[in-house]
User: Fold this.
Amino acid sequence: MLILAAFFTIFQYSFSGLQIINLLFPILIVVCGRPVSVRRADAIVMLVFSLLVTLSLICFGMTEKWNYDTRSVIQLVFTLQYIFFAFDFSFDYPKLFKCLYVFGVMLGALIIILFFLTGTFRIPNFYTSARLWASFLPAWPTSIVAPLAFSLWLALFRERSIKGAAIIILGLILTTSRAGLFCAIGLPAYKFVASHHVKIRKITSLRLIVALAAILLGAFLILRDNQLLLTRLFVSHDRISIFNTVWQLISQKPLLGYGGNTFDQILPIFSVDTGSWVAQQTHNAPMEIALRYGIPACLLFCAFFAKQFLRIKDRDVKVLFLLLILLSLTQDYVRNFSFLFCLYLAAHLDSPSPKNLERCTDNEYKKGAA
Assistant:
């Protein structure tokens, strides 16, 4: 539990624009479990992707006489880590998910407590005027959303814990992240619709309705003085400006991109119209890949994860995977360890278990966590 907490918080501190913890993803995967099988088609696709990545680095270095530094090497190594998605590793999913759920509740509770201890609840319109009120937390607020969303899914679909879900939902709301708000509303809404679809017991539906009403009431009481909340939720000029800037850069080098270099490395050197908003990142995973390695690599990358989605058979797991993919369209989570780890678990939730080759179903989860 402490290891997970450390991975998702303390070690997300960045150094020279890099989260060094990202390099430990394969170590964590290998240490936690041994490879059970390899998906050959996926491995071939990722091998071709890796070749395109390498070709991008070589061509950009030769044509632009670019001097690659330590950061460039680290970015290359991290990008090549996606090949791990082609392997099924043996995990004790019930225990691992139990730890992730508890961590999510702890993190949500910590955010709520800090919201009051820091006096943020007294700040009018804190959604706009004090968005970074907890910036002393590592990777606040965007990188915290992914593990919290994963924990909320566990609370709703595995733990069946209304109290735990309520704590995580309030934590997501207080991140001031639009992606966090989407998860806080979207997952409970899907749970409510899915519960009625399978016609579960009325008492369960009633408890869920009461819990959702309590959550919405709490959110209203917290946000009632934030008149600019709707403006914050639906503002789009920043993303439009970033998109236009990134697309100008991509159109200049559409085939092989910029040799793995990121937005903040490229922008000062290549002349483009930055519009009304200058950012340090693309805020979009596919555009990040296209910028770094070119459009062909981006298409291959997207096709690979589309296949991962189509392979999932459980409807609730599909929703989890799709939610994480949607989150990647709002931030460049492709270089974020916490997101990458959650996405791997979602993609391989029904992978073979080392003890028996059955799927990790809901019943198995309950037995293993007991």
